[in-house]
Structure formats: C-alpha cells, structure tokens
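U., I forgot to send this yesterday:
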Amino acid sequence: RWKDKPVALSIVQARLVGLAHFTVGYVLTYAAFLIASTAGKFG
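Result:
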C-alpha cells in the first residue's frame, strides 16, 4: 500500500503547482491591466 503514497503526493503537488502558476499569471495579468488603465487615466 505504501507504494501508492509518493505517486498520489506528486499528483497533489503537481495540481498545487499548476494552480499556483495559474493564480500568479492571473494576478499579474490583472495587475498589468490595472496599471495600464490607471496610467491611461493620469497620463
């Protein structure tokens, strides 16, 4: 039964990493859009 543990753990880690990358990309895109719109208002 212990042989299944590392595989399941790696799958969970892969999902977490994918979610983290997606979140970071989304936040960066949103921040860039926010900065661009703000610069457009004041510029």
